[in-house]
């Protein structure tokens, strides 16, 4: 069977990345389908933490409150170091500009359930048990051959295909995109279970001679998630992971007398550090694990994938609807690939420090760190930088061709390409509707009505105008344009909207403005430091 009318987008893979992308496409009314070769969603808790920036990014789609209600907001890490415990606060400083100043512990299974229920409630079904057999790129579309669970095949066409299908991505392979990197030599154990002897409501980390052993407050499907290296002296020839093996690991390497019981799920696995050579090849795009896989250090993986999806989705939507030029899609890789590379570097370094058997690093981990950690947490500036980095609130796109600092721009933050802070005045709630948001400081009467009309005319449903009290913007910024994914596209001082209108002519042209933009376009260049 061949579908006659092409889809705008085929989403391959229905993990958190694919489901987040589908939620955004759905909000924009895009013609899409989402398929997954697995018959059911994840039932075990692979990823388990949602960062503040991800909660912000998902909020416009109506799922964040449900995630928060079902999760466990973590506020402390207890590091158990050679007979003493250091209590490290999580996100208690440097996060005043977010409505979600915490790390949310929630199993991937539950995250997928919430996103899947949201899609189903809005009329979109995930087509499970549907495998992509072949993708053939043509000039204007991709021909996609699919096989359903009953063995029947279907051929359809789509303008774009997005691979959210994990480390063994079929889309990446069909697109001919390389996936370079390496595997770590260690084998890890993972389990969701009950633990007696741990204080509730905190992350517990043990610095041991074999590396770090972690217990995360999961809540569901069990109270705790355990993550540790599978030590050869305990496990060689021992077969699959079982409760006795985990208890032996705890008894031998941890100082506290913990009792493990009632495991819901146990496994062992290898960890890889690999990144896609490109995030786009023509009409093919990659997001999530299809583009980057790495160690779980810092709880970055699922969060980075979801933010890949939400960077790409609105761009695909506007281009598919003819509201934006094809060049907008060219901004996806320059914005997200540096973020992915930074995550690969960060997690690789953290992983090597935490697991190395080098005598010097083992000494630093077990003896030096216990002395330094209490001093480090007393430095507010250091904690603020660390927390904003881990929480992904510091990610920006200042070098993007779609980020522009206009005339009389302030030297102060936020800059074009930065995430929109939620202060002052709950700006996230104000700007949650799909589309761009033009924020003006002061009453609308202070602004030239003809200039406002030039900026918004023909874009009534895609550019939302907000006249704010002057103190609801920031020093030296009188107007700014916020992108659909919550980043600042354009900012300037003064009350001349010509620069903002020029920006919109380039990236969101109306039929009339296309001619204007081609004849009077200003150069648009980003500024500031590199992303990530």
What does this structure look like?
This protein has helices spanning 16-27, 52-58, 64-70, 108-121, 170-175, 232-235, 243-253, 301-320, 332-355, 359-376, 380-390, 427-430, 449-456, 498-507, 511-520, and strands spanning 7-12, 32-36, 49-50, 72-74, 76-81, 84-89, 103-105, 127-128, 131-137, 142-147, 153-163, 179-196, 203-208, 211-217, 224-229, 259-276, 280-281, 284-286, 292-293, 404-405, 436-441, 463-468, 479-482, 488-492. With 532 residues, it is of the alpha/beta class. It has a domain at 404-520: Glutaredoxin (3-Layer(aba) Sandwich). The longest helix has 24 residues, at 332-355.
Topology:
Layout: E1 7-12, H1 16-27, E2 32-36, E3 49-50, H2 52-58, H3 64-70, E4 72-74, E5 76-81, E6 84-89, E7 103-105, H4 108-121, E8 127-128, E9 131-137, E10 142-147, E11 153-163, H5 170-175, E12 179-196, E13 203-208, E14 211-217, E15 224-229, H6 232-235, H7 243-253, E16 259-276, E17 280-281, E18 284-286, E19 292-293, H8 301-320, H9 332-355, H10 359-376, H11 380-390, E20 404-405, H12 427-430, E21 436-441, H13 449-456, E22 463-468, E23 479-482, E24 488-492, H14 498-507, H15 511-520
